[in-house]
Amino acid sequence: MKKAFVLGHPINHSKSPLIHNYWINKYQLNATYEALDYDEQHLTEFLEILRDGTFVGGNVTLPHKIEIAKLCDELSPDAKLIGATNTLYFQNSAQKHAVLIGANTDMFGFLKNLDRESVGWDENLQTAIVLGAGGASRAIIAALIQRSCKNIVLLNRTLGKAKNLRSEFSSLQITSKLQADILENFAKYAPGADILVNTTSIGMNNTHFDNLPLNKLPSKCLVTDIVYTPLITPLLRDAEELGLNVVGGLGMLLHQAVPGFEKWFGVRPQVDDSLTNLIVSSLN
Ligand code: ATR
User: Which residues pair with 102 in a beta bridge?
Assistant: First the structure.
């Protein structure tokens, strides 16, 4: 029996058990996937259990994505770039001293979602506007850099955080140009945008941005949100009303789960309509 987990604190909001147990049933695997609640003070205790061989690996969610990365033996290139990990697995698991790898699949999930829902979105990608400079924005910036986006504009309520993020990424050897500014200056950058990504928590429970003039975006601009509760956030609804292409955030959640499942259980799972419907109905 192979066992995997999602670790967080609190953990009851996580959709990961629904996703992975759907696949365990679909592929009829002798496996389990469970939610584990450990707070910051008990992370090292959990790591001992993990290294004992109880689990083949698992997911990590808030608030542990950064701390757990420090406790891994190695980080995947994506996890290094993003500075956080959401997926754990072992290399050489048959040997006594298996190596604990911390990976990050958020970037993969974000890109897969757009590749599926908006084919060709990254062709000749000149300018992206990223709203927010918190933990969630890092995977999005890394993803845009990977797709050779020429200019990435980070807009945040708190300018200092956007500037810090710009400095962190700029210190790496990247070809993308990064700019940082306050959210209020959106109109200055909007006319040049090929893609607008919301990585802030605005949108959750139908909250909306004040004074974000989406009508300044060009008609070819793709608007996407990593918030998926609701599926169509007020930002996406407003963009849709202006005739812009929009992609919701649920696909990112579903696709980020794929690489971990494959590592732990040896089956590459499909994001199919039944899974999407299952998660959508759990949101209501
Ligand atoms: P996460 O790890 O999910 O990204 P976070 O690190 O707390 O969460 O970041 C939340 C992001 O949403 C930040 O960019 C935050 O802006 P600040 O850096 O100014 O705090 C942004 N955010 C949250 N509430 C906001 C609001 N009411 N208006 C504008 N930005 C908001």
Answer: 75, 88
**Band of residue 146 on the pLDDT scale cut at 50, 70, 90:** very high
Place of tokens 């987990």: 5
Cβ–Cβ < 8 Å for 134, 162: no
- Residue 262 Cα to ligand 1 middle (Å): 32
CATH code: domain 108-251 is 3.40.50.720
In the chain, where are the structural domains located?
2-105+257-283, 108-251
* Per-residue model confidence as pLDDT tens digits over 91-125: 976 666 789 999 999 999 999 999 999 999 999 99
Distance 136 CA to ligand 1 centre (A): 9
pTM for this predicted structure = 0.96
Ligand 1 pocket residues where CB is under 6 Å: 132-137, 156-158, 161, 199-202
CATH number of the structural domain 2-105+257-283: 3.40.50.10860
- DSSP code of 47? H
